[in-house]
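Model it.
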Amino acid sequence: MKTVYVCNDTVTGIFSGIYDAWRAGKQEDECEIALRGMLDFQLFCDYVEVEETEHKAKAVEALIKKHLGRRAYWEIYHAVLSADRRKGDAVLGTMLAARGLADSTKIMDHLAHPKVEKVFEISRNVIGEAHSYKGFLRFRELENGVLYAEIEPKNQILTCLAPHFADRLPVENWMIHDRSHKMFAVHEAQKRWVIVWGEKFDESVFDRVSQKEAEYARYNNQYGYKRSLIVGGWMEEHLEEKRRYVMRVAIITADTEIYRGNAEDRSGEAVKEIMEEAGFEVVFMRALPNDREVLSTVMLRLAENGLTDLVLTTGGAGCGASDCTPEATMDVIEKPIVGIPEAMRAYTLQMTKRAMLNRSVAGISKNVLLVNLPGKVQAVRETLKYLLPELIHALEVIQPDRDGR
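Modeled.
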């Protein structure tokens, strides 16, 4: 009979459930982790209520770090922050699968295993959402001098955001309010941040801003500017809605099989989804063969004719014999921007060593920004979400006199 361990939707709760299952010596098909309040009751199962303790959670954390390695630990940690109701079972299945490997530290390379694949997928989703908020989070100064920001994330990302802003705002009193999960990240100047939940706050305080903040708000309403606190300093941004949301993007998928109709363009669709969510108008989207002349000709026409502001390519930037997207892009680029692909590779190297084999390039042609993205769907999602805030800034620099066309 399968044993289902029912635990709270917290890191401590899920790790406590894993601790109980691990101690019981269960095999993968003999146990399951389920979240309290999200149960799908099954026949012929034994349901066990998990007692949540710090001792259990720390023991599982130590176990993962020792036997699966720190890379797997961070994948698992981020997966546990996900909104996915099957996350606990995916983590448990990944750990049980690692027991059968000669080198358990290689478990995250075994993406053919459905539980490992699930952990990888939801972990990337959490990391991507956190990076998106790091780029766009806006603070306002309250009447009491505290810097306040509020978010409504899908995943529990406060522990991903808090260290980032603690490094950048070490001498400020600030708080980030996660309205989705009714939690706060609270930072007292020059002290360590803490996560607070289950506490009642007088939310009217959050509407009472400082006089300086109120003046900026009036200025914003009158002139279309927005004051925002980003990683340590105040700055004014041109964020008129018409300007922010009329940027145009062309999406090219370099893949001969997709071009021939033998495969689905999942990466191109992922790019389209993200860019439309960011307010871009997708003016061109097409799969093209891995042909340097074809790719460069299309990119050049898009740039020369002013049909788009941004060209994003996916695929063809690896080391395969037919991969030629970077060469085709360099045929068109007039001014390379080496920092974009360097940042992209540095970011993705944290997830996989294979990122060092990526040959993507980026640059400007005829006031149009061209950027090569990876070919894998998940890599495209994570990389684009990471780059997007800076791509938007680059477009505003490249085209300072945009008229909201």
